[in-house]
Every structure is written in structure tokens, then in C-alpha cells.
Amino acid sequence: MISQAIQEALNKQVLMEAESSQAYLAMASWAEIQPGLEGVTEFFYQQSDEERMHMLKLIRFINERGGFAAVPPLPQPMVTFPSLKKLFEEFLKHELQVSDSINDLVHLSLTEKDYATHNFLQWYVNEQIEEERTARTLNDKLELIGDDKSGLYLFDRDILNFRGGDTSKKR
Question: What is the average pLDDT across 143-150?
Fold first, then answer.
């Protein structure tokens, strides 16, 4: 059985993962109406699906441990972006916030001596390492490209094959 404090903290993470899914869905929708960003569009649709899976994994864990996972209401995410560069900056910013939240959960689980939750959260810790690396690298690539249209074309074409620096790993 999980403590009330752990249940509340995990439910906050459920909200964060749901917000992530919505934010990335909005990013995908924005990218889809931009000419020539089919790869970026698909990348963010996949990111949205992945974040939803993260949310469901948390919900199931809370319920399996005797808690109650609450399905949260969601605020409206940002739906338009002034540029592709700004979209990816928001992506990185969001992943850093998720990492901070996961780290807070890990700390709480150790403070509460809830080693089952601590063990469960290690998957999220590792996932966030990959997510941050992906977001940073994609931002770095866009910085290198600048206003080069051919570079942007290649970026869009290759983004679906890119996962945290390992181009052999697809989602």
C-alpha cells in the first residue's frame, strides 16, 4: 500500500505526463500545417503517444499498489509557435520540467522508505535521460542549421530516425 503522500505525488506526475502528451499533440498539430514538416509532425505525434503511455503506466502502478489514480483535468497547452526553433526550445524546457518532477518523486520515495516506488521510478529516470538528450541534440542541430533550407529539409527527413544520438533506435 502506498502512502497518501506518495499517492498525491504520483497523481501530480500523472497530470504532468498528461500535460506532456497534450503539449506534444499541440506541437504535432502546429507542425502539420507548416509546409514541409512531415517528419517533425510525426515525431511529435509519436512523442504525444509515448507520454500518454507514461501516464497510463503511472495510473496502473498507483492502482496496483492500493492507491487511487485520479484522471486529472488538463489546461490548454500552447497551440501556436513563432518558429520551429521556438517549438523545439519549448520541447526541451518541458522535458527539463518533467525530469525535475521525477527527481522530486525519487527523493520522496526514498524519504518515505517506499522502495517499490523508488524501483518503479528508475524506469522514468532513465527515460528522462534519453528525452533530455534528444531534446538538447535536436535543439543543437537546429542551431547549426540556422536559416539553411536544405539543412531544415534534412533535419525534417531524419528526425524520425533520431533517438538521443542513436540513429539505429526508432520509436
Answer: 93
